[in-house]
Amino acid sequence: MMPLSQTISDTKVAQGSIMAWWLGGSGFVFKTPVGTQIYIDPYFTNCVASIFGVDRAFPAPISAEDARPDLLISTHWHEDHLDPEGLPIVAEHSSAAMFLCPPSCVSRLLGWLVPRDRVTSIKAGESREFKDVRVTAVAARHVVGIPGWEVDDAIGVLLDFGGLRVYHSGDTEYDLRLRALAYNHEAPIDVCMVAINGAGGNMNAHEAALLAWQLGAKTLIPMHHRLWKDFTGGEQATLDPQVFASTYQRLGGSGEVKLIDVGEGVELRP
Length: 270
Prior knowledge:
Layout: H1 4-10, E1 18-24, E2 27-31, E3 37-40, H2 48-52, E4 71-73, H3 86-93, E5 98-101, H4 103-111, E6 119-121, E7 127-130, E8 133-139, E9 155-161, E10 164-168, H5 176-179, E11 191-195, H6 205-215, E12 219-223, H7 241-250, E13 256-257, E14 265-268
Parallel strand pairs: 3-4, 4-5, 5-6, 10-11, 11-12, 12-13
Antiparallel strand pairs: 1-2, 1-14, 2-3, 7-8, 8-9, 9-10
Helix pairs in contact: 6-7
């Protein structure tokens, strides 16, 4: 089977669309018609196992050595979003890769000796232009409840691919500021990618479905329900994406819910 990194490299993206591949967790790779690759929250290694004793459930679909991002975005500094083992390898093997993330991530990347001129800070409410993509950081409320792992500057991300607008929630609980995304911007959100696992400071599947319905996107993709081996997440966890889909449908949602597998690519259109 062809490695996913090669599949992404070889894929030709049609005008007016983008391709997206799920890496598990909240990790995605996006590719535009001109070939720009945007990575969000890739977790390449198994470093969380040595910190919290939780192994990943599957091998990383792309290795840090093979990743070739033009831009790598981390929504916050938690290790499954800002991989302390993997990202220095990406910086070394992909010399053109740029990094965009909140200030608490910037300080860690610099401490790992990622070159300063390749790291840019972004906060909620700020936008950055990168090649053919406009990146806007939006609010997130990621309250984990573990001393030392606070993330006051966690963000979600709005990606504007020349008129196709994708919202990636990052890790967040339900918050009225997120509902306001439906009317706080100049154009509707086309694709909504939302965390559903319901543990560790995230929305559960029901809350994520409510948010997706309120945002009015036409394509919905649940995420962060599959990453960890033998991990239930406790009573609040909702790790079945069908729960998201059924709740969204009961709310009257008319968009298409795409339930994709790790490593699977999906074409997204306005």
